[in-house]
Structure formats: structure tokens, C-alpha cells
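Hi Y.,

Following your request, here is the sequence exactly as I used it, all 357 residues.
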Amino acid sequence: MSQAPELHESITALPTLVAGVGPFLLVRDPVAWERSGASAVLDAELTALGAVPFEEQAPHPTFESMQAAAARARDTRCRVVVAVGGGTAIDTAKGAIWCLAGGSIEEPPSQEAALLPLFAVPTTAGTGSEATHFAVCWHEGVKHSLSDERLRPAHAVVDSNLHQSLPPQLTATTGLDALCQSLESLWARGATKESRSAATQAAELILGALEVAVTQPTPEARRQMARGAHFAGRAIDVSKTTTPHALSYALTHDHGVPHGFAVALTFGACLELRHGRQERPGGTDEVTSLLGGSLEEATARLRELLDACGAPTSLREVGVEEAELEGLVTRVNPERLANDTLEPTTEDLGWVLRSSW
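Below is the corresponding structure, written out as C-alpha cells. Let me know if you'd prefer a different format.
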């Protein structure tokens, strides 16, 4: 398995990590910075240590924002990048590092380029970006993926105390994203023995805590979700994601469906399709077992979990018209699709979307 970030479970570790490095870019979501309690704990100390704030306020990480963050880091001669927030803040920080080293939408930085180290502090339990070597990047309405082993954070501060104020919907959508990441990792072409172990651990933690974290959050449920999301990130750092993610991007772009909900909407149908094959594609039985044992039990549990979390359970519910389904089939992410052991055809994707509608 690839070199994972050094893991810290208390935000109080961060000042020690950046002490003496000189100016460092602090990419932060201003709302998460305040609501998570990070500001109260860190503001004065990080300012004294040379923090150069860059506030990321967009709902999704954009290449333009990444370039702006890179320019700020360049102008102030930053030597490290710190990200505090959800996936958008962490991916923006990765994009800033990418741009600083000469990367573009089309081309990665040269292998000779020295990339600044990244310290990531997630304030949600969802994307796992604090453990991965890639970043989501939106540019001119198209979702891209920036990928480079050197983008993987050197340190990940996974402190569930920062998650205590997360509202139910954000807990649900980020948690469902992490759950789908872990389960998809099991049937991904890129899966390894090590990534499957991380994915299984992640799924078990999340399945045991997500409903409580959304409906009646406790410190222990938050802790399990934080660890589960982190291990899901470690799993997809190796395996990457598959068909439910490939189908989700157009739903988010066209209909504003939060990413985790968009992924979960087609997951059950993807599992059913796999069971419909004469020879089940790799990973199918492992996913089914984690969700309940039989296909019927697994799909029922998934639907019950969506209901309990206040998540939509059909494409119709999020505003997708039946006439739009054919167009959605053509707007999938080809890289995520090719990573699926199912090898879904256009007809398969149409069936999944109709079943999810």
C-alpha cells in the first residue's frame, strides 16, 4: 500500500507540526473554521507561527481558486500548505501545490518539480481527501481529477472534536460518500489486499455509526465516523472509485444533488446489477455481506439507512425527469467507469438509472 500520511488525532498537534517552517499557506473554509472550533483553538497560535490565510468559500474546488491560492503562496514565499475544512478546502490546497509546481488542467507538474508538503485537517467525516494523492477540480463546468503521488498529505489531523457541530444533512451526505467509497473500493479493479482491509474496516465503522451521527450524535459516533472516513480515503487512494461515482457527477452539476447523496442514489441498483450477472464480478459478495448477507437484506438496509439519514431514495425525488435519463448515460466519468470489475455497458448504465429513478 502507498505511504499513508502520518496520523494525528488531536488538532493540538498542528502548531508543533508547523513550528519553525516559516510562512505557510492556510487554506480554510471560513464557516468550518469557526463552527468546528478550530478558530478558537488555533487562530492566535497559527498567526504567530506565520499563517498566510486563504479563505475558500466556493461550494466546489475550482481551478481558478487553486490558481489564486497558489499566487498567494508564491507572493508570500510559503514553504508548507495547511488545509482546514472539508473536501473543498483540502482539494483546493492540493490544487494550489499543483499549480505552484507548474501543473495545469492538462498536464501534471514535472517529476523534477519540488512540491510543497501538505498538512490536512478535515472538519467533516466524508471525502477522505486527507489520505489521498488526488484532488477534484472543476473547470468550465467539467469535473477533472488532479493526480500525483506527491499530493498526498504528509500529515493528517483527524480530530472528531472538530465534527461535533456538523449539521445532520452535512453529516449524512459526507458519511454516505465515505460509505460508498469504502464499498466501491472492494469491487474496484485497482483493489489490493491492503486496500480491501482498509475498505472493510471503514465500512464496518461507518455502518455502525452513521445513523446515530446524523440523528442523535454522540462523541463516540463522531469518532467512529472520522476514523471510518479516513480509512475509506486510504482505501480509494489505492483502488479509486467506480460506477456510482462515475454516475454522480452530472447529478451534482445539473441538479445540485450533494455529492454523497448523488453517489448513494445509484449504489443499490449497481449492486443489484452485479447480482444479475451469471458470474458475479469481483467484490460483489463482500459488499453484500457487509450490508446484510443476502441481496434483499443488503438493498433493504441501504434504503433504510438513506431514509434514516434524510437522504433521497430516487432520482425522481431530486428533480431528474425520466426524459433526462438517456442523456445522463452519456455523461459519466470514463476513468471511474473503467475501474469497475462489472465492466458496465451503456445498456447497463441505462438500467441502473431507470432502476434508480
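Residues 78 and 263 are 36 Å apart (CA to CA).

Thanks again,
Q.
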